[in-house]
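[step 3/7] fold_predict: job queued, chain A
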Amino acid sequence: MDLGDGAASLDHDILAQLLRTRGVAEDEVDKHARPTMREFLPDPSEFRDMDRAAERIASAVLAKETITIYGDYDVDGATSAALLVELLRSLGVEAGYYIPDRLLEGYGPSGEALVKLAESGSSLIVTVDCGAMAHEALGMAREAGVDVIVVDHHKCSPELPPTAALVNPNRLDESDLAASFGHLAAVGVAFLLGIALVRTLRKRGYFEDRKEPDLMGLLDLVALGTVADVAALHGLNRAFVAQGLKVLARRERIGMAALMDASRLKRGPIASDLGFALGPRINAGGRIGESTLGVRLLTTADPEEARQIAEQLSALNEERRAIEAEVQEAAEAQLDGQHNMAVQVLAGSGWHPGVIGIVAGRIKEKTGKPSIVIALDDADGVGKGSGRSISGVDLGAAIIAAREEGLLEAGGGHAMAAGLTIAQDKLAAFIEFLGTRLSRDVERARAGQTMQLDLSLAPGGLTPDLVTTLEAAGPYGVGWPAPRVAVGPVRIVKADIVGKDHLRIIASGQDGRSFKAIAFRAAETEMAQTLLHRSRGRAFHLAGRVKLDDWGSRPAAELHLEDAAFAD
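[step 4/7] structure written:
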């Protein structure tokens, strides 16, 4: 950035201010403004079992063993599996992959599936984004004589399952340094394993007559899995995503390019595109379609196959939205009776288990409380649940504790998200357990919730250049929030509802400049009703995040509205 003129200097001042308010020390502003792998990447050997896992996979590569990657059905699982399949392919090994069916097999490694893979010839299975708590299934695999390496990031219990190696920064016996990377998604852990594997093969002379794989070219997968899994975007994750977005912009991966085309992304993607455009399409396959579609798309070398899969995923995503809307409406109807509960636990028969995680996230955003949505099966009296938490409340640990108390048939996760299986007759006891365990944490977390503002400006300051400057402090996500700005005082020129329930307004300031603002899914909120019906003659301060509206002939900055306050 050229700091020779006043405008550039102002841009730098704003950028530095954003970084400092996110905890960056003055002397590390440049490092965090341009996060690189060199600055943030740890030595993979710092993690327990990393070298053991790398040695075992290296031996399998050298001996040309049959290797199968066993992944979860969400985006993190799909990208983790695709990363290892692609890496092994570049090493001359055509590894197979297995993605369980969400409805028929559920989350995590199935003992029956692992044994069948062993019987079909796999001598090494690597589970990704699952396995940390699969004691019974991994015990069956060991009895069948197959080695299993677990690559995961979910919470672990003190007693680890039987494996050839278990690589997980959230192991309770990890060193302090390795544990500081507990915010990594599974795909980030898989990437570190890839580095360790290449290093091990290099020591064994494997690359004396072959080219080493391009590990940096895998960062598009790491970026997508990290953002879609809502991993905290600080430290190494920021470097993963920042560099991965550069790889994505090159559109070199055939499946990823097809996915961007299906998402109508013509420009280079930003972090929010991964979470709201690309990720949901990959997820749709595992939620309501065929669980292998994501890995197939991300590993195919056939452009026509990629196009067809991307279109299929887009269609499934539209179907998922309709199903989600039905479940969300039914879940929200139960909220009236739960005003005093610390954790919203909503359960219903016939709810599609493929969308309960998304609905739990919606309920969390609506109520500001951790939320769990459970799809009950009347046939066997068992419910499948998915939960989303708020900052400061470790939902994964609570779910593990409930399982250890005998309240759940299965359960696990991490601080911000968790999954569970519960017998319907234990639902009341489970709700009571969560209230007792988490009520104080939720109270403290909610008491500390405020809307932090980074900038205050007049409407004339809301420009495309400002959007560009603010994006330079990204990528943004959990743990590294996108900047919020306050614009005002303004008067409402026009306010209406667009789409199903989105509030759209045109606001004008004392400087004579006007801008568009939109509040998504907000039509029934007090803020929307005030701006629609009580804005005449009143001035407001509007708060939200600035985005670039590039649909017209000339790009313009718009405000994605989150709150409003009277200015007079």
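[step 5/7] annotate
The two ends are 40 Å apart (CA to CA).
The longest strand covers residues 485-498.
exit 0
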